[in-house]
Task: structure prediction
Amino acid sequence: MKKGILLIMMLAVGMGGEAQTAYISSFDNIVDVIDVATNFITHTISVGMSPMGICVSPDGNKVYVANWEGASISVINTTTNHVSATIPVGNSPIGVCVSPNGSRVYVANELSYTVSVINSISNTVMDSIIVGTRPWAIAISPDGNRVYVTNDLDSSVSVINTASNTVIATIPVGAFPCAVAVSHDNNKVYVANCGYYSPSPQGSISVISGSSNSVSDSIMTGGNPYGLVFSSDGNFLYEANWGTNSVNVIDVATNSVVDEISIGSYPVGISITPDGSKLFVVNYGSGTVNVISAVTNTVIDTITVDGGPTALGNFISIYPEHAGYASPCIVSSNISIYPNPANNNLTIETPQTSKIEISTIHGQLIKTLASTGTKTNIDVSEFPSGVYIVEVKTGKRIAIKKFVKE
Result:
């Protein structure tokens, strides 16, 4: 049975979808929603101005988007794929993270040198913490006790105690730190130092001891590292390199680079699926998302998204149990099917040439064809009476509609 049809049937009997989703922010003031099982874009959501940082809540019910020019956070309801709230924060918010229990949202405001603390129940700012100069990336420890903020122009990391909302340490690191990730056991903090932009790519990874709040190791990587994410088992760290269009694979036991994967242009955001099987890398320069197999360390798919994608942070939910799923009913207003009900002939109008598949309501594929221009006429006179599903696929976008054969 085809997955798309199965999802519709599950919806009909009151069950949830089964496809995890990735949320890709773009400077075009939108967020593209990608079904990570099929790598298709299922929705496009309008948010605030110049969204950059993005983070999915632990339960998958909300997505928080930092609107850099909008000085706000857009809160996306993942059930409806609409913005449910807009929260004013500091000047030029860029990094965002959510506490493990989902009760607090922390926002790094680049040009006001602060971190806003949001109450996720009331969607209001409950505190503002002064940190270093030009805070950029932000991450919270798995135990929820510490928030780590990279200060771009200070070449430092501020450590915030979440119980008191105070800075308890400031740690010198490399030049222009722009990404941070905390190990699963809370013991190590990895900081990507992007370095100075020059003809020769620079950069390093500072390794901070979580207990002593001091740098315990440094990994020379080059490549202007810009994004970090751990493997699902915590044994590897994946680093997106803006300057060399690559992803480095770092063995955290030895703090050494063990592999390098060539990808698109100017990669910025990187995230991993909950099962640890796939990495999604957002390429700002080429307007694409590369999908990497974490088993083979090879690019297995490339998804074209809307212009200027950024998606800094955790843009795939880490908990797949009940939420953060692709909507099972994917319907585009640009697709028209008529007459409906149909007797002998069915017409499908699409905005561009597409692949069309027709299946029974039980998932049996009965017809596949390419659209003829933007209007396709199909003879359905020999179809048995009943309900049919039409999937229209254009590039990496999919629309699903149904029609009734009389």
